[in-house]
Each structure stands twice: as structure tokens, then as C-alpha cells.
Amino acid sequence: MAGFAELGLSSWLVEQCRQLGLKQPTPVQLGCVPAILEGRDCLGCAKTGSGKTAAFVLPILQKLSEDPYGVFCLVLTPTRELAYQIAEQFRVLGRPLGLKDCIVVGGMDMVAQALELSRKPHVVIATPGRLADHLRSSSTFSLKKIRFLVLDEADRLLEQGCTDFTADLEAILGAVPARRQTLLFSATLTDTLRELQGLATNRPFFWEAQAPARTVEQLDQRYVLVPERVKDAYLVHLLQRFQDAHEDWAVVVFTSTCKTCQVLCMMLRKLGFPAVALHSMMKQKERFAALAKFKSSIYRILIATDVASRGLDIPTVQLVINHNTPGLPKIYIHRVGRTARAGRQGQAVTLVTQYDIHLVHAIEEQIGKRLEDLQVEEAEVLEILTQVNVVRRECEIKLEAAHFGEKKEVNKRKQLILEGKDPDLEAKRKAELAKIRRKNQRFKEHVQQTLGHRGPPKPPPRAEGEGEA
Ligand SMILES: Nc1ncnc2c1ncn2[C@@H]1O[C@H](COP(=O)(O)OP(=O)(O)OP(=O)(O)O)[C@@H](O)[C@H]1O
């Protein structure tokens, strides 16, 4: 099998890989690194935990070492924690270069970021919202000369999810040069392939691992059918069972909303579990602190919303529990991908209520695999049911008394004022944008209906390890 040197990487980068314990390139690295070094745009679709980050960091560092200047590369990613994680990979692999990076994410000091940007860092790693804010409000830096634009979790950046990045992306794309190399990576690229292809037009190279399933083999995927009202007792039971069976353990529990996330965290702590929450209603500093404490095993359980479902690389995680069944198969793929990374074993357990069975079928169809039934001692769950439900109710009351949701609104307004914006004007602007988007969507649907008889355009041909897009 080819080593890093055979991919065309310089000896100093090969040595960096060796020092970090990366012995052999993973398939996505084997496929994408040579194409990127050749100067081609690249769309890389590979399973979670398969080393996509190094697949773009390594060739970018090589090109940067040949012609170092700032700003050389811009990386966009959907979450703040992910931005820090990517920056860390750049820093560690790029140490011999004396790499200067700058992280531009929301929830952190904007003035300090503007100052850092003005110092021409080699690499800027950003979430779209905050970077677009900088572009709109300051002229102390320019992205006009970047050689590389990377969209990590590219499908998420382009889809219109609960955070819609499209307006910010437009602003950013208007600020980068047309002549550049564009690199798009995700474990679930195919849904937005057509939009992504519009961004990568320079001899695009499409790489996708051909495999029967879209989740990794080392992942044991289970479900438990539970009535809605006993769900929390099942969660507690599963966590207790896991804790009893393992010395060294780490579990991520995914929840549907910030409020559930917070309530479950409070409930688990009251029941004696070492749990910490991560959701978007927390202050950014608290988010980073929670993640750091989980990574260093101070807390063994991370209760998170989907803000943690993509990209986070915490090798110690052995179990992912879905407290709710994800509404979209791709969310399931990313969530369960927080375990069984880089060849390790892992387990995912999804709590499924009677109302979610159709969602499980959709997940199974998409991932190309059946979820197995997990055997649970029902009697043991029923034993703790009353206690769990009482504690949960107490926590809910406490949270309501603390005006949980309202704080977010106040914080949002405060943040906008700090950023020099008028909160009321912003709300109006957002409402107008939503209106335009709805109108565009209706128009798109109308056009699609009109053209429906022609059938959808065909996706590009693909082959393992090589392909054109
Ligand atoms: N060649 C390699 N050999 C061994 N480990 C590797 C190699 N390349 C990367 N890794 C490690 O694999 C882990 C997962 O890599 P990475 O976070 O890039 O995955 P990913 O494909 O981006 O996953 P996701 O889709 O979840 O974001 C990291 O801890 C990384 O250090």
C-alpha cells in the first residue's frame, strides 16, 4: 500500500504524519491528496472518522510551504467547535512552517478577530455567519488572493437547515477570487451534489468510497423500541449498564432540542451520573469548557444537540445514544459517526418510540443496513421509572423557573448590540430573507413541476478512488 511519500507529499510532511502516528494514508487521503496537489478541485465523500480533514490539510500545507503568504486558505465549517478542531490539525501538521491561523467564529470577541485577520494569517478557519459579518463591517483584511477554499461538511453548509448559511455563503463567495482551488468534503455529499458541483468547476475530481453500507463496519448499530413515557428510564438504564461494564468509558447522548438537552443533563447529574451538556443556548465559553471536560474524561457523558453531531473527533467515545430518532438519515449517519472512528469499535443505540418506526426504516434504507434489536431487561427499567420521571419533572420545573428560553433571546439581542447591529432591524431583515427564500422555493418547485416530465438530471459517473464530476 502506498505511504504518504508516494502521494507526492514532501518529506517534512511525511515526517509530521509519522510523528503524529499516521502510518498509512486512509483511502480518502490516497484518493484526494494527489488530485489536490495536481491543482484540481475536489469533492471528497467518505465515511465518518475516515481522515477527511488530513486529506485536505496535508496538500494545502504542502502548497503553502512552496509559496507562503496570507491569506492563503479559507476553511468554512458549520460549527464553532469544529473550526477549533480543524485549526488544531493545521497547527499540528503545519508546525515546521510556523503556520499562522485565525479562527473566526460567533460567540467570540469580534474586535480581536478583526485584529488577527488584519495580520494576514496563512489560514482562516471560520463559521460562515461570523466571517460574513466581518466582510460586511470591516475592510482590514482581504480574501481576494486565497488559493484554497475548503467547505468542510459541505452539504450542511449548503442545505437550508435550522441555521441557514446561504446568505452568508453568498457574501463570502463574492469576496473570494474566481481563480482558486475549491475542496468540498463530507460523509454525506450526494444529496447536495448538484449545488456543490456549481462551486467546484476547476477539473473537479469526485472521490467516493464504494461500500455496501454508509456507516463504518466496526459500528454495532442497535435500536430499542420504547414507549414515549419511559424513554428517560431506558436512557438511565442504558447508561448505568454501560458504566457498570466499563472502567474507562465515554458516551455521547444526542437530543432533539436545547431544552431537552439541558433537562436531561440536570436529571442525569441529580441521579449521580457525570454528565455535561453541549447546545447552542449555552455561552460559547461554556460550550468549549464542556467539550474540554468531556475530552479529558472529567465528565463521561456528553448530552448534546446536533451542534455536536458533525465532525467532532473524540476517539474515546465508545457509545452514542440517540435519545430521539433523527428525522433525517444523514443526521443519523453523522451522529453515530462520533464513535467507531479511525478503525476503532463502537456502538450506537437509538431509542425508538411507536411514532418513529418509519424514520428507522428510512435510516435503514439510506445506510444500507438493518439496525439490530438491543435486549434490555424491562423489569429493571420499570424499577427506576418512577424515580427517573419524578427527577425529570423537578428539573423541568427548575429550568422553567430559570427562564431558560428567554435568556437566549436576551443574549441574542445583547450579542447583536455588541456587534453594532440593531436587533429589531435584524429581525426584520431575517423575516424578509425568509420571505424571499420561501418565494424562491415556491418558484423552484413550480419550475421542477413544469419540467417534471423530463426527469431529473443524472448525477456524474463515479468510481472508487477516481472519478470526474
Ligand atoms: N492516515 C491516518 N491513519 C490513522 N489515523 C488517521 C489518519 N488520518 C486521520 N486519522 C485520524 O482519524 C481520526 C478521524 O479523522 P477526521 O476527523 O479527519 O475524520 P472525518 O473523516 O473528517 O470524519 P467526520 O466525517 O466525522 O468529520 C482523527 O483522529 C485523525 O487524527
TrEMBL record:
| Residues covered by the DEAD-box RNA helicase Q domain | 2-30
User: Motif span (Q motif)?
Assistant: 2-30
Keyword Nucleus annotated? yes
Using the record's annotation, list all stretches that form the Helicase ATP-binding domain: 33-207
Give me the ranges of the annotated region Disordered.
Answer: 437-469
GO terms for cellular component: cytosol; nucleolus; nucleoplasm
Q: Which GO terms describe its molecular function?
A: ATP binding; hydrolase activity; RNA binding; RNA helicase activity
> Which EC number(s) are documented for this chain?
3.6.4.13
Q: Where in the cell is it found?
A: Nucleus, Nucleolus
According to UniProt, the reaction catalysed is:
ATP + H2O = ADP + phosphate + H(+)
* InterPro entries according to UniProt: DEAD/DEAH_box_helicase_dom (IPR011545), DEAD_box_RNA_helicase (IPR050079), Helicase_ATP-bd (IPR014001), Helicase_C-like (IPR001650), P-loop_NTPase (IPR027417), RNA-helicase_DEAD-box_CS (IPR000629), RNA_helicase_DEAD_Q_motif (IPR014014)
The entry's keywords: ATP-binding, Helicase, Hydrolase, Nucleotide-binding, Nucleus, RNA-binding
Annotated Helicase C-terminal domain ranges read 218-382
Q: Does the UniProt entry include the keyword Hydrolase?
A: yes
Predominant location: nucleus
Gene3D superfamilies of this UniProt entry? P-loop containing nucleotide triphosphate hydrolases (3.40.50.300)
Q: Which domain of life is it from?
A: Eukaryota
User: What exactly does this protein do?
Assistant: ATP-dependent RNA helicase that plays a role in various aspects of RNA metabolism including the regulation of mRNA export and the levels of pre-ribosomal RNA. Regulates the stability and synthesis of pre-ribosomal RNA and thereby regulates cell proliferation. Also possesses antiviral activity by recognizing gammaherpesvirus transcripts in the context of lytic reactivation.
- Matching PANTHER family: ATP-DEPENDENT RNA HELICASE RHLE-RELATED, RNA HELICASE
The similarity annotation says: Belongs to the DEAD box helicase family. DDX49/DBP8 subfamily.
Q: What is this protein called?
A: Probable ATP-dependent RNA helicase DDX49
